[in-house]
Structure formats: C-alpha cells, structure tokens
Amino acid sequence: MNILVVGGGAWGTAISYILASNHHKILIWSKNEKVVESINRSSTNQVYFPLINLPSNIEATLTVSSLDSIDVVFIVIPSVAVRNTVEHLQKIGIRKDIKIVICSKGIEINSLKLMSEIVAEILPNDYAVLSGPNFANEVMQEKMTVSLCASTYPEMNTFVSKLMMRNHFLVLPNNQLIRIQVASAIKNIIAIACGIIEGADLGNNLKAAVLSCGHAEINQFIKLRGYKESKNSETESIDLCGIGDLMLTCCTPLSRNMRYGYEIGRYGVVKVANKIGLVEGVNTVKSLKSARISLPIIDAVHSIVSNRPLNTQGLYNLLYNSILKHCKEYA
Ligand SMILES: NC(=O)C1=CN([C@@H]2O[C@H](COP(=O)(O)OP(=O)(O)OC[C@H]3O[C@@H](n4cnc5c(N)ncnc54)[C@H](OP(=O)(O)O)[C@@H]3O)[C@@H](O)[C@H]2O)C=CC1
Ligand SMILES: O=C(CO)COP(=O)(O)O
C-alpha cells in the first residue's frame, strides 16, 4: 500500500517505521525541513530519532498537493492541527476510497469534538482511531507494544491490523470509538496532575487517589457529553486506553505530560517547556474548560496550568480539595 503519514514527529516516525517494516511505501509529510531532508538523504529522522536507521521505503516531503497515488492517510500531528490538516486534504481532492487512520490524542477547543468527529464532519471517507499505551521511542526500539483500533466501519479494524501487525506490535480490534478517544485525551490531563504530585513529593498515596479519580472522570465526561456506546464484548477486559495508557502516562517520566507536571511540582513553573515538546494535556484541559466542563481533578489541573506559580502548599491544597470534591460528588 502507498501510505501518507501526516506528521514527522515522534509518533509519526514510529508509525512509519512499523508500516515500512511491513513493506508498505511510506511518504511522511512534515513541515520541518531538517526532518524531511534527513529522512530523504540518510534514512534517519535527525530531529526525533537521530540514532535509529529507518527503512529505505520511507520518504518525506514538505508539501502535499495531490493524493493520486495514496491508499491510506495516517494523521499523527498535535490535535490542535487536525481540523486544518483534514480541510487541506479535502481541498486537494482526497478520493473517497482513501482510508484514514487517526492517531492524535486530544479534544477540540470550543467544539469539544473528538478527532474522529472532526474527520467525519469534513470527509466522507472510512476512518479508524489507533490508540493505546504506546511510547514512540519504545516502538522504535521494537519493544513489545499493544494498541487498539476502533472504528464504526467494521472492516477498518481488520484493515489496520493487517497493515501494522508485527511480532512486537499488536493491534487489537475495539468497538468503543468514543471511549478510547476520551480516555486517550483525558489521561494526559491526569498525567500532568501525577507529575505535579511526583515533582512536589506529595506522595504515592495521593498519586494513586488522583489517578483513580481521574479514571472515573473519563467515564463522567462521557456521561456529561451524552455519548452512548455499546459495551465492548470480546476485548472488554483489555482496557488499554482507560487503564493501560492512563497508567503508562501517569507513572513514568518518559511521558511529556507527566514531565510537564513534574516541573510545575518541583519548580512552580515549567522551566524547559521547549525541551519537553508537545504536551497535549494542556490543550485538552483548556478545551474542556472552554466548554464549561467541570470535573474536580480536571478543574484542579486547569487552575494550576493557567495560574501564576503556586508553592507546594498551594498545589497540595488544590489537589487535596479536588479529591474531597470528587469523593463528595461521585463516590
Ligand atoms: N509520542 C508518542 O509516544 C505518542 C504520541 N501520540 C499522539 O500523536 C500526536 C502527535 O504526537 P507526537 O508525534 O509525539 O508529537 P511531536 O511533537 O513529536 O510531533 C508532532 C508533529 O506534528 C507536526 N506539527 C506540529 N504542529 C503542526 C501543525 N500546526 N500542522 C501540521 N503539523 C504540525 C510537527 O512538526 P515540527 O517537527 O515541524 O514541529 C511534528 O512533525 C499527539 O496527539 C500525541 O498525543 C500518540 C501515541 C504515542
Ligand atoms: O500517549 C502517549 C503514550 O501512550 C505519549 O504520552 P506523552 O504525550 O505524555 O509523552
């Protein structure tokens, strides 16, 4: 298959690595000249993975003006950029038979739309969401990884599994398109809270409480939004996004969201934001607040990331009160 991967960052490169290892022909679309030049010249991504050789069937481009030879498009960019990008695909005349796989984790500001809802609003194409506890750098090291693929187009799950399945990269079908996207977006907010707790040394007990309340807030958000989704049957016990990705992102400093929170907890401010890179949780918490969604842990993180530096006691008070509020309202 000829596959366009939109985004030459960490996850776009890892997705391309998997697909190219399965002998698909990959074109990465990146706006970063150094990324494009290094992929085309030396089969490496010098910005994101300078030490790892990429398969030679990955090429890159700075611009895409036609999708004539493309069969599948993977969208692997920050969630704030998804709408513009999908509109661009529409503008350049994406054929209806081109399949779309969404890999970005976030919720749109103001509209509160999930990434699949943005795609469905703009294009008539079949689409799926790929998500799970998947650090790009571990995928690049061929460490065992399991991901979920969800779609309302039943054949899409099998299609994506076939494209990507490798010994160390498993793709499981899932029928909870909404839940996996909500969980994948909100876990980034909870990871910021867990990073704050770690950085301010507020204790593992508090972290576990915040993580558990955060998990409940994923379900509460789904209820608040009035989403109705059938129960997942065959994979019900494998909650890779609600549990797996939440745990992964909240508990290891490999997560950018967790590191961001850690800096706030440790220093009161984020000292090296540009070194951390993309922190989807900050955008997501702003999106939720822009739509007046109010859930205790989410509110506490919003107030921490949007206010002046707080000292450890201030951070503790906010998180402590959010737990109390959560228990009062939902326990
Ligand atoms: N990293 C990971 O382990 C995982 C990430 N994800 C999700 O994938 C998405 C992308 O993350 P990731 O690859 O890590 O992020 P990175 O920051 O590593 O890469 C983002 C890519 O998108 C490009 N980009 C940035 N802004 C825009 C824009 N406005 N329009 C078009 N392209 C843009 C960047 O270009 P440039 O290089 O020029 O900045 C870069 O190529 C996120 O939603 C993330 O949550 C999901 C699973 C795992
Ligand atoms: O989503 C991820 C892992 O599943 C990546 O997490 P971060 O964006 O916090 O690094």
UniProtKB/TrEMBL annotation:
| Top enzyme class | oxidoreductase
Question: What SUPFAM superfamilies does the record point to?
Answer: 6-phosphogluconate dehydrogenase C-terminal domain-like, NAD(P)-binding Rossmann-fold domains
Enumerate the active-site residues.
K187
Q: Where, in this chain's numbering, is NAD(+) bound?
A: G7, G8, G9, A10, W11, G12, A136, R256
Q: Could you tell me the EC number(s) of this protein?
A: 1.1.1.94
Q: Where is the Glycerol-3-phosphate dehydrogenase NAD-dependent C-terminal domain?
A: 179-307
Q: Which Gene3D superfamilies match?
A: N-(1-d-carboxylethyl)-l-norvaline Dehydrogenase, domain 2 (1.10.1040.10), NAD(P)-binding Rossmann-like Domain (3.40.50.720)
Which residues are listed for NADPH binding in this entry? W11, K31, Y48, K105, A136, R256, L278, E280
The superkingdom of the source organism is: Bacteria
One GO cellular component assignment for this chain's record is: cytosol
- Where is the protein localized? Cytoplasm
State which pathway it belongs to.
Membrane lipid metabolism; glycerophospholipid metabolism
Q: What does this protein do?
A: Catalyzes the reduction of the glycolytic intermediate dihydroxyacetone phosphate (DHAP) to sn-glycerol 3-phosphate (G3P), the key precursor for phospholipid synthesis.
From the Swiss-Prot or TrEMBL record, give the protein name: Glycerol-3-phosphate dehydrogenase [NAD(P)+]
Q: Which organism is it from?
A: Candidatus Xenolissoclinum pacificiensis L6
The gene for this chain is gpsA
